[in-house]
Amino acid sequence: MNGRLRTLAATTVSVLITLFGLTVVTFFIGRVMPIDPIVAILGDHAPPDVVARVRIELGLNRPLWYQFWIFFRNLLHLDLGRSVMTTHPVLQDIGRYFPATFELATAAMIVAALIGVPLGVLAAVRQGTRTDHMVRVFSLAGSSIPVFMLAMLSLVVFYAALGWLPGTGQVSVVYDGIVPRITGMLVIDAAITGHWNTFYNALLHLIQPALVLAYFSMAYITRMTRGFMLDALRGEYITTARAKGLSTARIVWRHAFGNIWVQLITVLALTYAGLLEGAVVTETVFSWPGLGQYLTNSLLNADMNAVLGSTLVIGVIYVFLNLLADVLYRMMDPRVR
Amino acid sequence: MLTRRSVLAASAASPILASLGADEAFAATPKGIAVMGKQIDDIVAFDPAQSYEFTDNEVDGNCYNKLVTPDLTTGTTVVGDAAESWTVSPDGLTITFKMKPGIKFASGNELTAHDAAFSLQRVVKLNLTPGFIVTQFGYTKDNVEKLITAPDPTTLKMVLPKQVATSFLMFCLSANVGCIVDRATVMSHAKNGDLGNDWLKTHTAGSGPYQLISWVASDHVILEANPHAAVKVGCNRIVIKHIPEPASQLLQLEHGSIDIARDLLSENLKQLKGKADFTVLTSGQATSVYIGMNMGKPHLNKTEVHQAMKWAVDYEGIAKNIVPGTYEIAQNFLPAGLPGALTDMPFKRDVAKAKQLLAQAGYPKGFSVTMDHIAAAPYNDIAQAVQANLKDIGIDVKLLPAQAKQVFTKMRARQHELILSVWGSDYFDPNSNAQAFCADPNDANNSKLQILAWRCHFYNPPLTKMVEDAVKELDGAKRIAMYQDMQRQFRQIAPFAMLLQQNAVAVLGKGVSGLKIGPMPDYTKYADIRKA
To answer: What are phi and psi of B489, to 5 degrees?
Structure first.
């Protein structure tokens, strides 16, 4: 029990130090950027007296350490300041934009895991065959074609040329603003409230960006699964299982896969964290109103409160998904308990 | 890779998609709703006392009336908007406006002179970014309530603290900052003495043909017809979707998912050539692309060097090959369309002459210099063309591309050498650009006027005096002549090579008509947009 408490305390301290470090680095990078935040707020034409007044109002005339102290003190009260771009409190903005990213990333993750893991297993089982080569080329393409190009290609083929799927945005204009906001995830909200036309429309809008993201993530999952499986299939217990005359399916799925899925949890968790970080490019091309687009626009507009807030939220998600993977790893694998 | 199996699978899937509503998803936009694809991530606030960016000004222009508006057919005078008529006292210091009767705000309240006085007073009291357009006449928080008054609901009286040209005042009142807000509605949302600013950032309270009903930053703006407006609109709802990629805008326009595309580039326009279904609208904007040369740097402080660069640039090549349709050559600080703008183009590429001027300046072998520019289309390509042009006369240019606000920050700190940048007029009066490009009354760091001339250390007292004199000139024709004279002198002595004037381009889909693009964003009008 003491050991567990010690582990918990060490993990908590490590998480807090990581988050504090992230806050410090993000804050100071934001402040040393060669962009005057006042220009970002007031524009290039603002007269010097207005610039000077707003600089004082925002405390930007104070020493950097003092600005950090104010920021950190507000952060402890969950006050991330106001976004210049949207005029809303940053936390409110994140609450608005994050569900769209969560919806997109989760859909992409489900597709990527459901296809990527079996493909990786298949490639490992048929190592050196045409199937293996095809899977490797397929996954290599996924990780080497720029997402931007893939997204544009997808729009050109499935929207413009074939007309199978809708274009950009989360929903068609006709359905905009109809569904009351509950979770912030349009597909879910539309289903909960019984707006089925909006549900189908939003689902169709979700397919393209989710598949583009899924392909990108799937490539990584497939390669990692293949690697883990190849290692597992070389194990002596597999030779024993074969000698016992067990079926290939049983050997592959029960014995080999049964030993790699703990490692896969880390891969899946990190991939999911990567997707939640905001699929910046995909969201931009598909005009998806998510955190990635919010962060990109904030950066381009030097909206530092929004950048800091979004980065911190992403950092927190990343740290906690890592932590979750770690905990699951410990729970599932008796060797690391 | 398309395989037989994937094609078969896709074919099998298509009826399923259709049954799920795919047909609706790709159907043309509904009647009565015009959908516009536009980059709208520049929006900061819709409060006319604060709004200063392209899209928020454009939206305000469709939601508010002003006292006066420029007569865009002549471009030299203003006509009444909410004001029916006005008289100017013989000394030019008092202007009395008579308001039009029967104009109603979206709330149903009648627009009166009290609303007009309140709107101008709050601009001065809040003194946000565009506040200087009104405060430059001498209005302050302390005097504005005494000097801008409404003796009765139909009369607005403006007393000027100092003498200025009436046309200058009128054009400034026609700027977005001159929008008249509904005093009762705005004050019902006021808190902590903000005169309703916080609420008005995300709402409108005007009497124009539309009212704002939804804005989600970097996603959409939705406008709905003002039920009390005198103007009957063609489409009851205007949806402006944020589509940052021009290629995406084109794709969606061709597919009928949007009715109007607003940010197409030259290469996108080429793809539309010969397609009769689309209507391309272009309109010259009061937006100029220029090269600024910082005279604070030793090798850039000679007029011959400035002239050499102006003669080295291949204006025609840039306009024809890089930005056809979206920009035109413009070599004066006043863009075509603004009162007093000259349209002649004295400079063309002449390498021999440019080299000779450089030799006269004491740089026969040229020199090295850096050029900051915005890292976005079309500035990247223009910068590279200028780099190649200057290389031909011995000037070795190192390009420093950066995000727009970074480029502006560096220029405001006067740390640049050359800069390829863009300037949009603040209001429809020649003083806006004349002051920006020519006036530097005090070149010290604590100067109260820190616009383009100051940022490039272009300290030229005679030219600055011409700017100051022109705003006081009461004779309209004489005033215009002064600006024309200023432009001629500017071309010879200023460290600015004026290159291009932007054309706003809008492409309308099949059966769509009626969009009017103005020379400045707040003069772009949606009211007549119609769908067949």
So the answer is: -65, -40
Q: Looking at the DSSP assignment, which residues form a beta bridge with residue B395?
A: B367
Q: Which residues of chain A have pLDDT under 50?
A: none
Q: What is the DSSP letter of A250?
A: I
Question: Residue A174 burial by CB count (10 A; 0-12/13-18/19+): exposed, middle or buried?
Answer: middle
Do B207 and B226 touch, CB atoms closer than 8 A?
yes
The two structure tokens encoding residue A226: 């293949």
Closest Cβ–Cβ partner in A48, A200, A294 for B21: A200
Torsion of CA A114, A118, A119, A125, to 10 degrees: 170
Taking residue B440's Cβ as centre, other Cβ atoms within 10 Å add up to 25
Which residues in chain A (97-126) have CB-CB distances under 8 A to chain B?
none
Note whether A182 and A189 are within 8 A (CB).
Answer: yes
The whole-model pTM stands at 0.80
- Please enumerate in sequence order all residues whose Cβ is within 8 A of that of B224, keeping only pairs 6 or more positions apart, or say none: B210, B211, B213, B236, B237
Residue B303 DSSP class: H
**Burial of residue B414 (number of CB atoms within 10 Å: 0-12, 13-18, 19+):** middle
3-state secondary structure A90-147: HHHHHHHHHHHHHHHHHHHHHHHHHHHHHHHHHHHHCCCCHHHHHHHHHHHHHHHCCH
What lies within 8 Å, CB to CB, of B474 at 6+ separation is B92, B163, B165, B166
On whether any CB of chain B is under 8 Å from the CB of A19, the answer is no
Distance, in Å, from the CA atom of B130 to the CA atom of B123, rounded to the nearest integer, reads: 8
B267-287 pLDDT, tens digit each:
899 888 888 889 999 999 999
Q: Which residues pair with B237 in a beta bridge?
A: B33, B224
**Mean of pLDDT over chain B:** 91
- Tell me what pLDDT residue B500 has: 96
Residue B300 binned pLDDT confidence (cut-offs 50, 70, 90): very high
The Cα of B289 is separated from the nearest Cα of chain A by a number of Å equal to 15
Coil, strand or helix at B78? strand
| HEC sequence for A145-172 | CCHHHHHHHHHHHHHHHCCCCCCCCCCC
Residue the block writes with tokens 């406006």: B97
- Range list of β-strands (E), B186-309: 210-216, 220-225, 237-242, 260-261, 279-293
Is ipTM strictly over 0.90? Answer: no
Task: Determine the distance from the C-alpha atom of residue A114 to the mean position of all C-alpha atoms in its chain, rounded to a whole number.
Answer: 17
Distance from chain centroid for Cα A132: 29
What's the rounded mean pLDDT across residues B433-446? Answer: 94
Which tens digits make up the pLDDT trace of B301-336? Answer: 999 999 999 999 999 999 999 999 899 999 999 999
pLDDT score, position B200: 96
Give CA angle at B182 (B179, B185), nearest 5°.
140
In chain B, the percentage of residues whose pLDDT exceeds 90 is 76
Per-residue pLDDT, B14: 38
Determine which of B17, B177, B221 to mutate to test the interface with A (most A C-beta atoms within 10 Å): B17
Omega before residue A99 within 30° of 0, cis: no
